[in-house]
Amino acid sequence: MLIDAPSLYFRAFFGIPESAARAADGSPVNAVRGFLDMLATLIRTRRPDRMVCAMDHDWRPDWRVALLPSYKAHRLAPEGGEVVPDTLSPQVPLILEVLDAVGITHVGAAGYEADDVLGTLSVTQPAPVEVVSGDRDLFQLVDDARPVRLLYVGRGVAKLDDCDDAAVRSRYGVPAARYADFAALRGDPSDGLPGVPGVGEKTAARLVERYGDIAGILAALDDPGSGFAPGLRAKLAAARDYLAVAPKVVRVALDVPLPELVTELPAAPADPDRLLALAEEWNLAGSARRLVDALAQPA
User: Fold this and answer.
1) Cβ(40)–Cβ(290) under 8 Å?
2) What's the average model confidence in pLDDT over 12-27?
3) Which SUPFAM superfamilies is this protein grouped with (predicted)?
4) How many CB atoms lie under 10 A from the CB of residue 97?
């Protein structure tokens, strides 16, 4: 099980009021509690034997920005870095401390996003693999042949959408392997991807279905007999420069250099004393206990 940690802890932060989860000194721990409870639920219900939490060591890599300057530009803080709530930032190191005490591996890579770490692990770790995220871009990792599935948490961890290739096709009208081309055409305001103006999901899906990918679409543009309606041809032609780079931006890297990882999920905390100390200091006893109980459940 590969965990998109930023996706989950952001979801936890905004899903649990700060007033409902504070340490003794008043510090909010809502993201920590919610994240640990999500892990406990996933472990209890999906019963993985291996787990890695992927981290964002670079949320907006230079190589993606060089290709598309608008990439995540709307989330850039005036002083640089990502706009992150002031009360969330201090909770991320605490999440990592708890993971270390429990013995669940977390990893990131300089110059890459968590998505890229997840993509690389999805093709290098022994299958079957389940990727847990609320990021639609990760539909592209679904691969029935390995198999790799996406457990999409758009409605929360308790209401996972367990997605194989048929589910991606049903949702978007394209196979998972072509999701990046589809997303580049459609655009995604949350990532600063403009898409092709005037091309929505249905048109994007039809184009991918007919021409295979964006390279095929661009090749067809140069063929007067390719059958594009004049209006659509004009829209695509106007977006040619964008279409030449967008798939590279959307496509998840599958070759991130990562260290050797211990992926086995422990049956008991690696450092129980440290976990107990963290739970007491940060008022995390309930969440820590639920996670430990989930780890200890019989196979």
Assistant:
1) yes
2) 95
3) 5' to 3' exonuclease, C-terminal subdomain (SSF47807), PIN domain-like (SSF88723)
4) 16
